[in-house]
Amino acid sequence: MLIHEKSPYLLQHAHNPVDWYPWGDEAFEKAKRENKPVLVSIGYSTCHWCHVMERESFEDEETAKLLNDRFVAIKVDREERPDIDSIYMKVCQGLTGQGGWPLNVFVTPDQKPFYAGTYFPKESRYNLPGFKDAIMQLYQQYKENPERITGIGDKITASLQERMNTEGGELTEEPLHKAFEQMQNSFDTIFGGFGQSPKFPSPHMLMYLLRYYRQYNQDLALTMVTRTLDAMANGGIYDHVGFGFARYAVDQEWLVPHFEKMLYDNAMLALTYTEAFQVTGNEHYKRVACEILEYVQRDMTGNDGGFYSAEDADSEGEEGKFYVWTAKEVHTILGEELGSLYTEVYDITARGNFEGKNIPNLIKTDLSKIAKSFNLTEEAVQTQLETARKKLYAERKKRVHPYKDDKILTSWNMLMIAAFAKAGGVFQDAGYTELAEKSYRFIEENMVIDGRLMARYRDGEVKFKAYHDDYAYGLWALNELYETTYNSQYLVKAKKLSDDMHELFWDESSGGFYLYGHDADPLIARPKDVHDGALPSGNSVAVLQLLRLSKLTGEMKYDEWANRMFTAFSGDVSSYSSGHAYFLMCKLYARSSSKEVVIVGSNRDQHKKRLEQFLRQNFLPELTVISVEDPTELTEAAPFAANFEKTNETTIYICENFSCSLPERDVDKVMKELQK
Fold it and tell me: Residue 533's CB: how many other CB atoms inside 10 A?
């Protein structure tokens, strides 16, 4: 049943002996007709424990027969169907206190859940129920006491729908400080990051701390960011040979990664390292940001400009095999002299630092000390290390590569477009900007059907109506594209996208955006998330980008929608502040003395170019910048700025609340004023 699907994850299961169905009417109608319960098994193509459960249970003939005889089995790719995943993950967390993937939920033929879990071993072990036992017992309960199972499903569904309601009220400044304190309390002062292990990069928390530092001049906020970024870039979570970050580290010091690489992590981290460069001027952060983007351009970008989703942790059935080295391999490839330097710098030993092999890392490296011991300057060491890296990379290319999930997801692509656009502006790299624009064109030309944005493209097929996150992240991408290129068409597109988003997803009664549109097939609940997960929530991103768009265009309705969301989600945000870091970034933006800077002048004027680059290169998140040669170009995009006079000399207007200062022509004076 899955062989005609395009999802890489569903295709991985197409030849299982389990009689899998994709999510849809056919599966649920079969369940009703045969009076069978339904297993909804949710995962994604690069999920390690999904592979384990497939090998143990779904490829096992005996287990498959037990399942086929008693259940209708549905496979869901969580990356294609975040709506289904969001609903049933909340169920699993509510029933078991934990979540993760694979996510296995047992539901009635009308989609109501009565039991849920994550990974099940085939036989009972690790204090976990075995999958075979679970199938037998749940089926028996369903057949012997159907009223009880129906009652459980009704109760769980009602509770789920109740939890979807948000608690409104005024959002004060208190959560801003509470979030900082919570982050401070969980901060690892030795190795950076938050908590002990496993350790996730949490880039949106770092982005929040950069803004908190700017607004409150709190040095500790910046220290938490720099220590974390330094530790991650030195750790094994970073691929020192081919670049890019893995999803998380399993240990406290960032040495051993879960080797899977996700597009969204690398987009968010590229943005964060770029912002850290803006704040500190530290060239190392620029280098890491550019290396991430090099990895994405080289390994995760299609010829047409779309970005692929992920790379698996496993190759040849072994986690991390592609990425680790023996000391002997390194010496053979690099020769004795260069090999000795590389192994000393990157902690590569005969004993190994990971299961007898080595993950290259700089955690304990003192480069100046090593340079002295080799009688070299630090610059000479860096040059030799880059030579070594290129040789190791060329050798690594010959290995069996991890599986690449090449589907193109609108939401994750929009994040990466934002990252390339931002880096293009900050680092004055036209190549980054061109790729961001090309990728946006790909989505416009390939992922819109009858005016409706779609969520997934693969192998020529476009499928699934886009979710709210696709629109919110799209708005982020368009705002970044505008502030890098000053092409007013990006503002026109942003206004259209925002209006469509409001029409499809807006909750008229309480405010905020639902995850799936009113034109989609309804599920048992309609999620409206604001809590940050691995990514910032769509609602959080929408608030900040609507506030930015309101400043850029002068359209007050976007500001009104954003302010309504502050009220709608205040209870959730106040109760667990650090779990809503991106939403609180919006509050920081709203409370800052935000300004709109309008620059009018010839694009050939060097003063104008210098001011534009100053505004891009510095960390000034409270500013929005409009730059134009002829203000009449803004008639559609930003009418409030369209009446400014076109002049021969570059003229700057600084506006607050859409009231603008007298024209200023002294660029140095303006730069000094804006840095205050």
Answer: 13
What tokens were used for 579? 């779990």
Residues 189 and 148 in one domain: no
Q: Looking at the predicted structure, is the pLDDT value of residue 89 above 90?
A: yes
Give the largest Cα separation in the chain, rounded: 85
What is the pLDDT, as a whole number, of residue 164? 79
Is the same domain home to 50 and 148?
Answer: yes
Inside any domain, residue 308: yes
Nearest to 233 by CA among 365, 41, 71: 365
- The answer on 338 and 267 residing in a single domain is yes
Cα dihedral 40/44/48/54 (nearest 10): 40
Same domain, 159 and 189: no
On whether residue 385 sits in a domain, the answer given is: yes
Question: Do residues 490 and 428 make contact, with C-beta atoms less than 8 angstroms apart?
Answer: no
d(CA 95, CA 89): 10
Our CA dihedral for 516, 522, 526, 529, rounded to 10 degrees, sits at -30
Residue 638, domain CATH: 3.40.30.10
Amino acid at 361: N
CB atoms within 10 A of CB 34: 10
54 vs 643: which has the higher pLDDT: 54
Domain with 371 in it: 184-405
Give Cβ neighbours of residue 379 (< 8 Å, ≥ 6 apart). Answer: none
In a domain, 478, yes or no: no
Euclidean distance between CA atoms 524 and 158, whole angstroms? 9
Compute how many other C-beta atoms are within 10 angstroms of the C-beta atom of residue 223: 15
Beta bridge partners of residue 211, listed in sequence order: none
The model's pLDDT over 592-646, given as tens digits with 9 standing for 90+, comes to 888 899 999 999 999 999 999 999 999 999 999 999 999 999 999 999 888 888 8
Which among 528, 472, 480 has a CA at the least distance from the CA of 498?
A: 472
476 falls within a domain:
no
Give the pair of three-digit tokens for residue 528.
């409206």
CB 582 within 8 A of CB 628: no
Number of domains in the chain: 3
pLDDT score at 449: 97
* DSSP string covering 44-82: -TT-HHHHHHIIIIIT-HHHHHHHHHH-EEEEEETTT-H
Q: Are residues 232 and 126 in the same domain?
A: no
Q: What is the pLDDT of residues 2-49, one digit of tens each?
A: 999 999 999 999 999 999 999 999 999 999 999 999 999 999 999 989
Are residue 302 and residue 393 in the same domain, yes or no?
yes
pLDDT, tens only, 291-350? 999 999 999 999 999 999 999 999 998 999 999 999 999 999 999 999 999 999 999 999
Nearest to 234 by CA among 367, 368, 396: 367
Same domain, 260 and 145: no
Q: How many residues does the chain have?
A: 676
pTM: 0.96
